[in-house]
Write a structure and sequence with these properties.
With 122 residues, the chain is α/β, with parallel strands linked by helices. It has three helices and seven strands, in the order βαβββββαβα.
């Protein structure tokens, strides 16, 4: 089974911690976890799959080698960093309101329109 490098933006917040929990519960194939947060909480620890990870400060170059980037750190963070993650080659899944009404960004509900995720803007 293929494994992925996954970044969680907002890893120290409530939703970010829940994302980590769900990835673990679902046994999502994570080869490398990249927990990211603001400078205020960078350096703290999060646990994932019985390992402790040091949270890194979110920076413009944080997405090198990341294949999947999960965002839940607020609309302003997504506005600035989600395009950088996508430009670095990551599939971006954003849980904020920033892209919610953007006609070029699909709202994907796998049980209903999974194919919409394949129609990403270039």
């Amino acid at each position: 089974m293929k494994k992925f490098t996954v970044a969680v933006v907002g890893a120290t917040g409530n939703v970010g911690r829940e994302m980590l929990k769900v990835l673990e519960e679902r046994n999502f194939p994570v080869e490398k976890l990249v927990p990211l947060a603001s400078s205020r909480t960078a350096g703290t620890k999060v646990e994932f799959q019985n390992k402790e990870y040091t949270v890194q400060e979110l920076k413009e170059d944080s997405f090198k080698g990341v294949q999947i980037a999960l965002f839940s750190a607020g609309a302003a963070v997504s506005e600035k960093f989600a395009p950088l993650a996508a430009a670095a080659g990551a599939v971006v899944i954003d849980n904020t309101s920033f892209f919610r009404m953007d006609p070029l960004v699909p709202l994907v509900v796998p049980e209903i329109n999974a194919a919409a995720s394949k129609n990403r803007p270039k």
